[in-house]
Structures are given as C-alpha cells and as structure tokens.
Write a structure and sequence with these properties.
The chain is mainly alpha-helical and 324 residues long. The protein has helices at residues 9-12, 22-26, 32-38, 41-45, 49-52, 62-69, 72-75, 101-107, 111-117, 122-129, 139-145, 149-164, 174-181, 184-190, 208-215, 218-227, 242-249, 252-261, 277-284, 287-294, 299-306, 316-322. α11 crosses α12 and α19 packs antiparallel against α20 (287-294).
Length: 324
C-alpha cells in the first residue's frame, strides 16, 4: 500500500538545521542575521550586543528577521543572552518600510511571535501595536488581511477600540478589509467596539457595506445593515450607491436583496456620471441583474428608463454594446 504524502504546513516546511557545537558555532555565522536565518542559536549566543542590534539595508534588526521567520527559539527561550533578553529595545526599531518586529510578524502570520512581542507592559505594547507601516497598515489590519482570526481577535481583546479604529493611508479600517474578504466572524465582533464603525467612510467615501457588496458577500452585508445599522442609502464620493456597485459587480443575488429593501426610486438614483442602476447592470453585462431591476416595472416605464442617458449621452443599450 502506498503511503499518502502529508499536506500539513509542518510537513512541507523544511526543518531548521540543528545547533552546531560550540567551537564550530563561534566561526560559523559572521552576523546575527545569518545565525537567525540558519537557526544557529549557539552562534547567536556568542555575539555581543552591538552585533545583535545591527541593521541591514532596510534598517531591520535581527529581531525583525526572527519575527518574520517565526523563530521563537531565538526570541523567547531561556537564553538570557539572546535578542529580547539582551536587546529588548530592538522590538521598537522601525524599518525603512515603517515596520517594527511585531508588525512584520503579523504580516507573515506568525501569531505566537506577535503575542510574545506584545506581551510587555500595556503602555509599551500599545505603542508597538499602534505602529503603522508606510501604507498605514497596522498589526490588526495585517492579521485581518490574512484572514487570521485567531490573531485578529486576540489583538482586539487586548487593545480594543483604539486599534480597531486605526485607519490606513486610504482611511480604511480593519472592518473595511474584513467586509471585502467576507470575514463575518471578525465583523460581528469588531462592530461591537464602536456603534459608528459600520458607517465609517474611507478616502473614497465607501462604507464597509459597499466592500461587502463588491465582493458578493450577502451574509456580511445583511449583518452590517440589519445588526450594525449601516446606512443602506449611503453613496460613495462618485455617487455610487450599494445598488450601483452590486450591478457593476454582477452580483444578482445582492441586487435582488437590495431591491426588496430600498426605496422604490432607488433604481433611478444617478451617480455623478448620470448613470442609474440599469446603466450599471447593462455595462457589466449582467442579464440577471438587469431582469431583476426591470421586472417590477410596467412596459411603458421600462421604455422610459431604457432611454435615459448618462452625462456622456449613453443609454443602457450603448453601454452594453461598448462592453461587448
């Protein structure tokens, strides 16, 4: 009988090399960076504090690399001469990309490293957790982007509302990111930290609900509207409503749900380009969405609606032809 290959992460990850004998270790790794990447703890133990605080071309310390690789042995174990024991200040060093060690670990999914690096006093831990990189990504947003709910929910429980409301450079909250990936578990918990979070607008005027619509996540949308009280009539800076975005995305199941709950004239709302929901459905080529929009109208009203032009003079038929 043939044995099946294991598909677990631990089976595919190559093990770290075993520690070298003391004499060989002394001359094995020239830098702390090499010792970390090679898994040579003995080499690391024999280095002085200056070597352990060395910076690479990206202004990263050996602790950054250890956190990225998830090398808890180099960070945490009872080697009083290693990294956090000897040079704990490197946990607050910021790289060229604006990352400290905990943020780098979160981006790589190293949850144990994140928890260890943020297990300091609340004041210090909060400062580290609130660090953002050059794009404004926080440790919580990095965890949510990876859909790592174990890490994300631990961060929420530990640091609460200040971290949950920390936005990136596009003014997006972790909630926007969760909505865009359909992460209903995170949405349910995060929205309890602030009653206005569900209506928070990013740089483009988009609420989390709009991202849920764009991704086709009806369960997330329903929770945001029905439980978190997100405004179903909210529009983006381009004047696009949830219905416009649903039609553009071709998510017919969301179009139907919105039509059942929106005001009767929602189908006529124009964007800043003068396009209504029918224009959007025609442009996306979503026949099902188009039929849902038109099925409740009398034949005469349909003709009138299909003759409406946007600011470029296009009817829905023009847009359907333009997009083939």
């Amino acid at each position: 009988m043939k044995m099946k290959k294991s598909t677990s992460p631990s089976a595919t990850r190559s093990p770290l090399p075993p520690p070298l004998p003391q004499r060989e270790a002394a001359s094995c790794c020239a830098t702390a960076f090499r010792a970390i990447r090679s898994g040579h703890v003995e080499c690391l133990k024999g280095m002085n504090n200056e070597q352990l605080q060395e910076r690479d071309q990206y202004h990263q310390t050996p602790l950054h690399i250890a956190a990225k690789l998830g090398n808890l042995e180099a960070i945490e174990k009872a080697y009083c001469s290693i990294l956090m024991k000897r040079v704990p200040q490197t946990a607050d060093v910021i790289s060229v990309c604006g990352e400290n060690a905990s943020l780098l670990a979160a981006g790589e999914g190293q949850s144990k490293c994140v928890e260890y690096l943020l297990s300091d006093s609340m004041k210090r831990a909060m400062k580290r957790a609130m660090q953002r990189d050059i794009n404004g990504t926080s440790v919580l947003m990095a965890a949510v982007a990876r859909q790592d709910n174990d890490m994300a929910l631990w961060l929420l429980r530990t640091f609460g509302k200040p971290l949950a409301m920390l936005q990136n450079n596009c003014r997006m909250l972790p909630l926007h990111v969760a909505a865009s990936t359909g992460n209903i578990e995170f949405i349910r918990i995060a929205t309890k930290y602030d009653s206005e979070m569900a209506n928070y607008r990013d740089l483009f005027g988009c609420t989390p609900a709009l991202y849920a619509v764009q991704g086709g996540y009806l369960t997330c949308l329903r929770y945001l509207i029905e439980k978190a009280r997100s405004n179903i009539s909210a529009v983006s800076d381009k004047g696009q409503s949830l219905l416009h975005v649903a039609c553009l995305s071709g998510n017919a199941h969301i179009v139907r749900w919105l039509m059942q709950r929106s005001v009767p004239n929602a189908i006529l709302w124009p964007t800043k380009d003068g396009a209504n929901a029918v224009h959007c459905a025609a442009y996306s080529g979503s026949v099902v969405s188009l039929s849902i929009l038109l099925e409740s109208l009398h034949r005469k009203k349909r003709r009138v609606l299909l003759a409406i032009r946007d600011i470029r003079g296009n009817t829905p038929l023009h847009l359907a032809a333009i997009n083939n």
